[in-house]
Write a structure and sequence with these properties.
The protein is α/β, with parallel strands linked by helices and about 325 residues long. It has 14 helices and 11 strands. Helix 3 packs parallel to helix 4.
Length: about 325
């Protein structure tokens, strides 16, 4: 079956499936595996120690795949060398970049001058329209079910995606709560031309930096085991519940002081669980899609399973 959409044409991929940026986790092994399986893998740029490390990771990915892949820039991480890293992505001629977690406006002129496909993560119709005006090639729309940082409006994927589809002319990618072929096909029914998945790709064999503790927790969790933190400081984000998360939520009931929360919500606290496996001292991002995750397959097995599920649904209703 052909899976041609404007997104597959833009990114030159077989299936309109994008792997999310996944801070501290999305490096060459995972990105190459997703691209080799027909999707679009991404390297997370801002989790790397410096710009040279990004160049090394891009070149290592090229040794693992000859398929298109991209670079995700979590522009809210406040690194001073974002433009330097963007220029390296341009020099290395990656297939596309995605901008998430901040205002893309300062970086769009550079990307447009290079004619590089640029995807912008949005969480509202207004943000999507603004991204289109700035020259985005496509928008990734994250609903409130998603893991990691979310929009403040708490609108779910089922409602948000068609609103954005009706508001912009560029391709729309659905994200948030999607982990299988059913979610994929539902996204197309909503008008999206592809999907992006984060949580589901963590629970794969090629996500080699994620600790067994973290992966196994994703498999065992139900959708009600995720909660949203950081509302008190205006940056809501969905995580798996853990002893540290309970402490964070208690703190947030008492204060909206960002500095008081920082020791608990920092990247170092994140890595204590996702890298070191110490759940009691750390936290891990996760979307409500955990309720549908039951195994830790190879990426190729996951994508082929999704293709079969989606094709079965398509055949059933056509």
């Amino acid at each position: 079956m052909k899976w041609h959409t404007r997104l597959t044409e833009l990114l030159q991929i077989e299936y309109p499936i994008i792997q999310g940026g996944l801070a501290y986790l999305a490096y060459s092994d995972l990105a190459a595996a997703v691209s080799n399986a027909g999707g679009f893998g991404q390297i997370t740029a801002m989790s790397l120690p410096d710009a040279n490390a990004l160049r090394h990771e891009i070149r290592r990915t090229r040794k693992l795949t000859d398929k298109p892949f991209g670079i995700n820039f979590a522009i809210g991480m406040h690194r001073g060398d974002i433009e330097e890293r963007l220029r390296i992505a341009l020099e290395e001629k990656v297939s596309a970049v995605s901008l998430t977690g901040g205002n893309p406006a300062p970086f769009m002129p550079l990307l447009q001058s290079a004619n590089l496909p640029t995807l912008v993560l949005v969480s509202s119709r207004t943000q999507a329209q603004k991204a289109e005006q700035l020259g985005a090639s496509a928008v990734i729309v994250v609903g409130h079910e998603g893991g990691g940082h979310l929009g403040r409006d708490e609108v779910g994927t089922m409602v948000l995606v068609p609103q954005v589809v009706d508001a912009v002319r560029i391709p729309v990618v659905a994200s948030g709560g999607i982990s299988d072929g059913r979610g994929w096909m539902a996204s197309h029914a909503l008008g999206a031309e592809g999907i992006a998945m984060g949580t589901r790709f963590i629970a794969t064999q090629e996500c080699i930096f994620a600790s067994p503790s973290y992966k196994n927790a994703l498999v065992k969790a139900s959708s009600s085991d995720t909660v949203v933190i950081k509302r008190s400081i205006g940056f809501p984000a969905r995580v798996l519940r853990s002893p540290l998360i309970d402490k964070i939520m208690e703190l947030e009931r008492e204060t909206n002081d960002r500095e008081a929360l920082m020791p608990y919500i920092s990247g170092e606290a994140n890595k204590r669980w996702i890298y070191d496996g110490i759940q009691e001292e750390g936290f891990g991002w996760a979307g409500q899609a955990v309720g549908l995750i039951q195994d830790i397959p190879k990426v190729s097995e996951l994508i082929q399973r999704m293709v079969r599920e989606a094709e079965d649904l398509r055949n059933k209703w056509t």
